[in-house]
């Protein structure tokens, strides 16, 4: 029998996943800044403290490095912490524990331990929060062997991938775009997982593959709807996981469409688009390409405060439409 | 641990803590292990000179009483996080020197299967969660382990070893604060050997004593002579009791000295020969402990000689074990990055 499917927001889906994880396993607990009575800066933990108490929904001091380290230490010794960074930008304060400790501990100790910690990072621009609260730093962590880095783009995936992350024996970093928190979509009740390391073809098409991440998936789908009216048939691949990357799904798609565009919000240079492009250039799909690969990424600037500048700093639907049209028509 | 009997305890009433608390057999075992740490590090240093060990290493020669004293009241289930100068902690917590040598030699029989080396030596089965190459890196991790202990009600106490250099890292302050706020069963042990690499504590640290910083986090701050085993063990014993009783953390500052340089690149330009010579000749922790044991009638020259020769044999066997152990295959370079690959 199919589970009951409701419309939930992305934030509600995450909250439900955390509640299910805590119901299923007493080792699971939540840590973060103002995640208790405040409910989290984006109300993702909401009222969970009322259901699970302050012992399992732990407000930390404003100590990102120490807090992340406590989560790592708890995971190392048998617990299953879910650690919320208030903003993904604050990962910069905790990089030591994430990169040197969580990611490497199993390796350094020859496989004697594992670190099943989940870290959640509200990310991205569009909220007027300016340069220190709007970054997309997922590629930083994607560069580190030992970590798994995911970017769910829908409420369904947000719940299923969080539950997969909690069940995963290794550290999983979840980047949640802040503008997605209010996005609604169908979410089944109860427990299910969406696998880490598997991309999803959101829309099938013949003329062009757009590999998108996070909020850019929806923007690519919106662009594809417009382009369809012009007779351009776009395939949209939601990468979902940036480490380990699902290369085969992208390769197969590019072999089918012969054109590739990567769309992501993070700064364009040295990012996910570079990785996907290089991966295709190294693969058998290279011979199928009919046009140069195109990357659409964030501007080479910090995120500006002014709303018009802020929008201009990251790819928007019209940018995707124009770039896709030019790519298919060979305007380069 | 079984302590001294009542009659024996009465006859020792005026002796320092450990001589009242522990049996002669236990104390002889401590001397054995202090020698084991010293000879292990000398053996590692010699193997390095002979090209059998690559990379670098940080020797704790001169700090053995601290590792042994802190670990004395710990049970096998209790846990520690250690530092880049962590060979002594590892042995004190119960590791076998043969598997430590094997790790230094990069062999599959090493504690980390040759992936970690000196700076990441660990023995998880014995409660050593690992040395750490990042100054202060293990301190929040120890607090997390203590949080696990509290949440799972295991009764475990966690010790975080770190050096004087770490007390100026943000991680130290964040971790001590959280441990105190949450009253966690953790003991912070600062082995103050006077220098963070070349920079003296006087030049790097605003407070006179690192233990003074405990006041900022509402926990006891205890200063001990880190070269006197009994002093260290007594402070550790009290901190363990406090932690087990749910009263929260303690900061112990153990003032000591490393005889060797910071690492293998050290030219010792920041301290005088006289200073080093003074610590080696007049305040060596093994000599001090050995003299006390002899003075209080716990051991005689014959007993000491038996310990020294036993240690020499264990070291020789350990090095041989490491030499003949297999190296990992290059095809296994990618192992242990993720759990599924193990």
Automatic annotation (TrEMBL), chain A:
Residues 8-183 form the Transketolase-like pyrimidine-binding domain. The keyword Chloroplast does not apply. Keywords: Oxidoreductase, Thiamine pyrophosphate. Its cofactor is thiamine diphosphate. The lineage of its organism: Bacteria, Pseudomonadati, Pseudomonadota, Alphaproteobacteria, Hyphomicrobiales. InterPro entries: THDP-binding (IPR029061), Transketo_C/PFOR_II (IPR009014), Transketolase-like_Pyr-bd (IPR005475), Transketolase_C (IPR033248). It holds the Pfam family Transket_pyr. Transmembrane segments: none annotated. One of its GO terms (molecular function) is oxidoreductase activity. This is Alpha-ketoacid dehydrogenase subunit beta. SUPFAM superfamilies: Thiamin diphosphate-binding fold (THDP-binding), TK C-terminal domain-like.
From TrEMBL, chain B:
Keywords: Oxidoreductase, Thiamine pyrophosphate. It catalyses: N(6)-[(R)-lipoyl]-L-lysyl-[protein] + pyruvate + H(+) = N(6)-[(R)-S(8)-acetyldihydrolipoyl]-L-lysyl-[protein] + CO2. InterPro entries: DH_E1 (IPR001017), PDH_E1_Alpha_Subunit (IPR050642), THDP-binding (IPR029061). Gene3D superfamilies: 3.40.50.970. The keyword Oxidoreductase applies. It comes from the Bacteria. Its cofactor is thiamine diphosphate. GO terms for molecular function: pyruvate dehydrogenase (acetyl-transferring) activity. One of its GO terms (biological process) is pyruvate decarboxylation to acetyl-CoA. SUPFAM superfamilies: Thiamin diphosphate-binding fold (THDP-binding). The keyword Hydrolase does not apply. The pyruvate dehydrogenase complex catalyzes the overall conversion of pyruvate to acetyl-CoA and CO(2). It contains multiple copies of three enzymatic components: pyruvate dehydrogenase (E1), dihydrolipoamide acetyltransferase (E2) and lipoamide dehydrogenase (E3). This is Thiamine pyrophosphate-dependent dehydrogenase E1 component subunit alpha. The lineage of its organism: Bacteria, Pseudomonadati, Pseudomonadota, Alphaproteobacteria, Hyphomicrobiales.
């Amino acid at each position: 029998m199919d589970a009951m499917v409701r419309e939930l927001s992305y934030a509600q889906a995450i909250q439900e996943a955390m509640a299910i994880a805590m119901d299923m396993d007493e080792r699971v607990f939540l840590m973060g800044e103002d995640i208790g009575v405040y409910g989290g800066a984006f109300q993702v933990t909401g009222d969970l403290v009322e259901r699970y108490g302050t012992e399992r929904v732990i407000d930390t001091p404003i100590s990102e490095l120490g807090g992340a380290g406590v989560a790592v230490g708890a995971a190392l010794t048998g617990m299953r912490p879910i650690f919320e960074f208030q903003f993904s930008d604050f990962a910069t304060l905790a990089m030591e524990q994430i990169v040197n400790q969580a990611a490497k501990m199993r390796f350094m100790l020859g496989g004697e331990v594992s670190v099943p910690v989940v870290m959640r990072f509200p990310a991205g621009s569009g909220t007027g929060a300016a340069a220190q609260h709007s970054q997309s730093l997922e590629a930083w962590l994607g560069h580190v062997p030992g970590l798994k880095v995911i970017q769910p783009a829908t409420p369904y995936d947000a719940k299923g991938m969080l539950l997969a992350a909690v069940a995963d024996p290794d550290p999983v970093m979840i980047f949640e775009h802040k503008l997605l928190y209010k996005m609604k979509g169908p979410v089944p009740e109860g427990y299910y997982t969406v696998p880490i390391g598997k991309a999803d073809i959101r829309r099938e098409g013949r003329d062009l593959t757009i590999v998108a991440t996070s909020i850019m998936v929806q923007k690519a789908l919106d662009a594809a709807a417009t382009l369809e009216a012009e007779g351009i048939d776009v395939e949209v691949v939601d990468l979902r996981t940036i480490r380990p990357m699902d290369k085969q799904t992208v390769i197969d798609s590019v072999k089918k469409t012969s054109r590739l565009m990567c769309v992501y919000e993070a700064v364009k240079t040295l990012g996910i688009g570079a990785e996907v492009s290089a991966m295709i250039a190294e693969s058998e799909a290279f011979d199928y390409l009919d046009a140069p690969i195109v990357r659409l990424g964030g501007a080479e600037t910090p995120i500006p405060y002014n709303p018009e500048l802020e929008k201009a700093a990251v790819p928007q639907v019209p940018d995707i439409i124009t770039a896709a049209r030019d790519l298919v028509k060979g305007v380069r | 641990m079984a302590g001294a009997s009542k009659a024996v305890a009465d006859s020792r009433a005026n002796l320092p803590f450990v001589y009242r608390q522990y049996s002669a057999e236990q104390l002889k075992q401590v001397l054995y292990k202090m020698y084991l740490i010293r000879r292990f590090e000398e053996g590692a240093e010699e193997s390095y000179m002979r090209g059998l060990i690559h990379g670098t290493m940080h020797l704790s020669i001169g700090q053995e009483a601290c590792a042994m004293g802190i670990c004395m009241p710990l049970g096998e289930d209790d846990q520690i996080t250690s530092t880049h100068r962590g060979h002594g902690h590892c042995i004190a917590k119960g590791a076998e020197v043969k598997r430590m040598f094997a790790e230094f030699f990069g062999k599959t029989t090493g504690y980390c299967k040759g992936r970690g080396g000196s700076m990441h030596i660990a023995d998880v089965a014995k409660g050593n969660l690992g040395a750490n190459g990042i100054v202060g890196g293990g301190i929040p991790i120890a607090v997390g382990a203590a949080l696990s202990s509290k949440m799972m009600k295991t009764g475990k106490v966690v010790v975080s070893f770190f050096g004087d250099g770490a007390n100026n890292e943000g991680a130290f302050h964040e971790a001590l604060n959280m441990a105190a706020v949450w009253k966690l069963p953790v003991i912070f042990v600062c082995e103050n050997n006077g220098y963070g690499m070349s920079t003296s504590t006087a030049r790097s640290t605003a407070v006179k004593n690192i233990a003074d910083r405990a006041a900022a986090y509402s926990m006891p701050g205890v200063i001990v002579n880190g070269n006197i085993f009994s002093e260290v063990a007594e402070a550790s014993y009290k901190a363990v009791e406090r932690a087990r009783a749910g009263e929260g953390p303690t900061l112990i500052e153990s003032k000591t000295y490393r005889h060797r340089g910071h690492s293998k690149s050290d030219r010792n330009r920041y301290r005088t020969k006289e200073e080093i010579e003074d610590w080696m000749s007049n305040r060596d922790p093994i000599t001090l402990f050995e003299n006390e044991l002899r003075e209080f009638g716990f051991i005689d020259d014959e007993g000491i000689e038996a310990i020294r020769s036993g240690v020499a044999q264990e070291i020789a066997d350990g090095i041989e074990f490491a030499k003949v152990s297999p190296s990992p295959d290059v095809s296994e370079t990618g192992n242990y990055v993720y759990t599924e690959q193990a």
